[in-house]
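Following the same procedure, sequence and fold were stored together, as reproduced here:

>
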Amino acid sequence: MKACLLMVCFLLFVGSMNARIICNEHGDWCDDGFTCCPNKVYRIMCCPLVNAVCCTDTWCCPAGTRCIMEKKWCSYDYQAIFSRRHMIPVNH
């Protein structure tokens, strides 16, 4: 009975852990659902978006957009003012 209870507790613990993605050969990782972005200091920063565009060491944009660093915008079309979004900071 105790063994069964321990097994249930273990499975609940393992199931609550976030899945991770390995970003490089050094074993750096991000949580599943994030995008690995290269960084000069930490090697990898984690953008909280799937398939994001990595802009710089500290910014990222949603997939399908481009980074406009001067304004800190993410834009689907450089000329389309109404398509812009604010960039999202990446996490370490």
About this structure: The two ends are 42 Å apart (CA to CA). The CA atoms of residues 40 and 56 lie 10 Å apart. The chain has a mean pLDDT of 76.
